[in-house]
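Quick question, first post here. What does this chain look like in 3D?
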Amino acid sequence: MNPGKKIITLLLTVLLLLSLAPGGAPAALPGENGVQTATADTGGPETTGKSAVIMDALSGKLLYAKEPDQRLPMASVTKLMTLLLAVEAVEQGKVSLTDRVVTSENAWSMGGSQIYLEPGEEMSMEEMLIAVAVGSANDASVAVGEHITGTEEAFVDMMNQRAAELGCKNTNFVNPTGLPAENHYTSAKDMAIILKKCLDYPLFMSISSIYEYDLRGGDFKLWNTNKLLKWYKGVDAGKTGWTNEASYCLASSGERDGMRLIVVVLGTTEPRSHFRESIKLYNYGFARFTAVKLAKEGEAVKTVKVFKGVAEQVDAVTTAPVAVVVPKGEDKDYTGAVAVPDEITAPVTKGQVLGDYLVTRDGKEMLKVPVVASAGVEKASIFQQMYRVMHKLYTFE
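> Answer (accepted):
Ran it through. Tokens below.
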């Protein structure tokens, strides 16, 4: 081979080596707008979504991420925050599911997906929330927000405040609907955080999992826009979104074999591609990871003596499932220990934190779950305490 050909061959070899990512895999190529079409550092699947994550719903740990902090419009996925604030207001007793929500001119004027509320039309809070969760109704979203705070603007302020409280650093809401608006954005990671909080509320789970609903006595049929409720085993919650600006978006959650995942895909362009890409990520998550389960939520993990109480003992129960999600094959050598005192002094309130359930591996703390009193124990009167002492002294068995 002549010197010129040798030089050309050498240059081509160097260029080929430079085009390989660490580990010998081809480097991710830029997609539309320079967004990478794969996440080389995780070895996860490629997705056409501009931003996507798989989150462990228990710990909040990201199991897969592609541009997780990229700020993007999210269309009607916005309504997850609308629903979160509503179910929290119900939980706190600020509103009731039986409240009559009156439609304002402002709510009536919303375009896009709607249930065609008329100005002055009343509907129960429960049915309004179902219209938001199942039918993605913009008019109902605004009506709910106005009922809770008085004005749409005040509700939007509450949305942003709650996002900040949850640690969402790349989210800003301008409306409760997701209709196109300047400076209205989120990221896949932030939306997973919001959905994770939604999952804490049985009311959210109940309405989010409804696939079809007869509104107005059956005159208006609602079909859930989240088709994964039917198309993918285990999916039971979430919210879709689509606008020209946001493209197709979906934040959803599903559980299999005791492991719950949250999958968020934002900005995928083809019709139904948000379902396809989410299924791809679910398949990856459930195939590659497993849950190491040590205790169920609400399980009694220790009996604690109560000093000077009307009852002599109380159960210490877990506040959440004690489980860690790990790659399959790495689920050995996890141990649990209950760090709770053997005795406490009355009075004890129900739900009082008594300590923690600690999960360790090779001496490293992997998870800490608070452990609380299963019941309240009042302080015994002086006569009750004296009787108990005398009873023990003079009772022989």
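The first helix runs from residue 3 to 18.
The chain has eleven helices and 17 strands.
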